[in-house]
Amino acid sequence: MDSFEKIELLSRVRDTPTGLRIDDAVLDNAAMRWTVDELLRLQLIERRDRVYVLGPRGSEAAVTELLGLYAADRIVVVGELSSIALDRIRSMASTAFANAFVLRKKRRDDDDG
Question: Among 59-63, 70-74, 109-113, whose mean pLDDT is lowest?
C-alpha cells in the first residue's frame, strides 16, 4: 500500500458490512476514482452490482494486519507513508541532479570534438 487514499478506501470497504456503494460521496473526485481503479487492478477490492467489496487479495494477512494497525493508530501509518513519500522525492531529486551533470558533461565532450 503506497498511499493514504488506498488505505482509507480499503478500510472503508472493509468496514462497511454491505459494501461501499459505487455512488458514495467519498468517491466523487478524480483522485478517489483513480484510487478505486488501482485497488480494482490490484484485486484488493472488486465490484459486485452497485457496491465495492473486498477482493481476493483484500483478505491477505499483510493487508489485514495493515488495516488493523491503521484502525488502531492512523498516525503511525500516515507517518510511515509520509516518510516513504519523502524518500521517493529525495531519490527522484538525486537522480535528476545526477542526470543533469551527466548531460552537461556529454555536451562538453561533444563540443570539444
Answer: 109-113
> Rounded mean pLDDT of the chain?
85
Q: In the numeric block, which cell numbers belong to residue 82?
A: 509520509
pTM over 0.90: no
For residues 102 and 98, give the distance between their C-alpha atoms in angstroms, rounded to a whole number.
6
For each of the domains in the chain, give its residue range(s) and CATH number, in order of start: 4-112 (1.10.10)
CB proximity list for 49: less than 8 A, separation 6 or greater: none
> How far is Cα 60 from Cα 67, in angstroms, rounded to an integer?
11
Strand order of the β-sheet with 51-54 is 20-21, 51-54, 45-48
Rounded-to-10 torsion of CA 70, 23, 30, 84: 10
Q: Note the pLDDT of residue 104.
A: 59
Closest by CA position to 2, among listed 83, 98, 60, 97: 83
Helix, strand, or coil (residue 65)? helix
